[in-house]
Design a protein that fits this description.
Helix content is 43%, strand content 17%. The chain is an alpha/beta fold and 229 residues long. The chain has one domain (4-226): Alpha-Beta Barrel (TIM Barrel), CATH 3.20.20.10. Bound molecules: pyridoxal-5'-phosphate. Pyridoxal-5'-phosphate (PLP) binds at residues 34, 36, 57, 81, 165, 204-206, 220-224. The site of pyridoxal-5'-phosphate has 13 residues, from strand 8 and helix 9.
Length: 229
């Protein structure tokens, strides 16, 4: 098996190649190493190989790892990519730089309320269910545009873009990534200040190259860096 450093180097090369193919500057795509279920030591190994952004999906596991002596004083940039429930908002606010998985107004309202309470700000993405699979979280595309004004109004939290988990079928995934980009454009059209809406979090180990071709700014790669979970 390859080392984490070797896997990371290979993924970064594939990101560069994918960008070259569609005439994008590689610095416009940020690699998030998805470290859920992995140990602090493995995260440290990736950090020592130059990886800064990490994605976690489970609140309790994340908080434990964040305060691990191997990691706690390092300048890591944490992303919460799991499904976020309202009752967990309190624990992660201030601990992550971006929350990817908000899929309803009530959770964003709770985020806003807590941010105001603690005199902080929080950046988040809305998860959209682009595949229409009932097993997936996320706002329906038509709900997103309909509800957008309510999200824009919330104080102390800033909507920075959209996130999706695509279908396993690569042909469908490509279409869903394109749909997410179109939705972001539509959202910009109704936003009070569209300059904040810069992020498209899409693409995982199986499909990040297609996501880059469709405009991903954040790709979330786990298995291809850390091995099977
Ligand atoms: C686990 C996970 C990933 C990483 O998936 P891989 O297939 O291991 O690259 C990306 N995004 C989300 C939301 C995840 O939960």
């Amino acid at each position: 098996m390859e080392s984490i450093a070797e896997n990371l180097a290979a993924i970064r090369q594939r990101i560069d190649a994918a960008c070259l193919k569609c005439h994008r500057d590689p610095s416009t795509v940020r690699l998030i190493a998805v470290s859920k279920t992995k140990q602090a030591g493995q995260i440290r190994e990736a950090f020592d190989a130059g990886q800064i952004d990490f994605g976690e999906s489970y609140v309790q596991e994340f908080l434990e790892k964040k305060s691990d002596p191997l990691l706690e004083n390092q300048p890591l940039c944490w992303h919460f990519i799991g499904h976020l429930q309202s009752n967990k908002v309190r624990s992660i606010i201030g601990a992550v730089s971006l929350i990817h998985g908000i899929d309803r107004l009530s959770t964003a309202e709770e985020l806003s309320r807590r941010a105001v309470q603690h005199d902080m700000t929080a950046d988040y993405l809305l998860e959209v269910n682009t595949s229409g699979e009932s097993s997936k979280y996320g706002l329906k595309p038509e709900e997103l545009l309909h509800q957008a004004p309510s999200f824009f109004k919330l104080p102390n939290c800033t909507l920075r873009g959209l996130m999706t988990i695509a279908s396993p079928d690569p042909a469908l995934a490509r279409y869903e990534f394109r749909r997410l980009r179109q939705l972001l454009d539509e959202l910009k059209g109704v936003a009070p200040d569209p300059s904040f809406l810069t992020e498209l979090s899409m693409g995982m180990s199986q499909d990040f190259e297609a996501a880059i071709a469709e405009g991903a700014t954040l790709v979330r790669v786990g298995t291809a860096i850390f091995g099977w979970r």
